[in-house]
Amino acid sequence: STTASDTTSKVSQIQNNKSGSWQTDSSASSYTLNEGKHNYSFRAIDNAGNVSNTCSINGLVDWTPPTVPYCKVLKSTGLTVISNTCNGKRNCSISYRATGTRWGTDFEEKSTDSLSELKVIQQYWRPSKFADSSNTCNWKPIDTCSNGWSHYTWDMPVTFDNRYRAIDNAGNTSAEALCTITYYAP
């Protein structure tokens, strides 16, 4: 809310500048802001015609969550693709067959946010074969989840339920995306 006081000649009016020109607003006590970037300036004028210093407020209103992340395979090592519906899609699945004793994949996860910008993409994953183990990643930034599990053929078949969500700088969280990955023995 906006308030002004003048002990000598009293405040006559409060003006705002939202669009490049000063306007007197009789209801200057509150403003409704739509989503987006806002730059407002305020000043008071007393009954003697004196104009106060300008008070400026810059802000961002963002209620929109980022886009739902999607998963794209960048590189596979020691694997042959059996099926893949994930390149640039959300809620998808990939199946691989191992060609050696050691294997792995590198993924790219993408999301966008047009207002307050993207802060982090988080990942939750758990290998189905080791569901009771502590070898999981529970909604942590992607780069902290990548190297928690060694992949060998004796672990196969194993399915990873990978869930992703994006969070923007305003704290809005996207819906989750699911990328299920199954690895089969040679």
Q: What do you see in this structure?
A:
This protein is mainly beta and 186 residues long. Helix content is 2%, strand content 48%. The chain has one helix and twelve strands, in the order E-E-E-E-E-E-E-E-E-E-H-E-E. The strands form three sheets. The chain has a six-stranded mixed β-sheet with strand order 6-7-12-11-9-10. A hairpin with a 7-residue loop joins strand 6 (79-84) and strand 7.
In terms of per-residue confidence, which ranges show pLDDT below 50 for 5 or more consecutive residues?
A: none
The count of DSSP E runs of length 2 or more, i.e. the number of strands, is 12
Give the % helix: under 10%
Quick check: average pLDDT?
82
Radius of gyration: 27 Å
- Tally of alpha and pi helices: 1
Fraction in beta strands: over 45%
Structural class: mainly beta
Shape summary: rod-shaped
Describe the largest sheet: 6 strands, mixed
* SSE pattern: EEEEEEEEEEHEE
Order of the strands making up the biggest sheet:
6-7-12-11-9-10
The end-to-end span amounts to 68 Å
What's this, in brief?
This protein has 186 residues and is an all-beta fold. It has one helix at 142-145; strands at 11-17, 23-24, 36-46, 55-61, 70-77, 79-84, 92-98, 104-110, 118-127, 137-141, 158-168, 177-184.
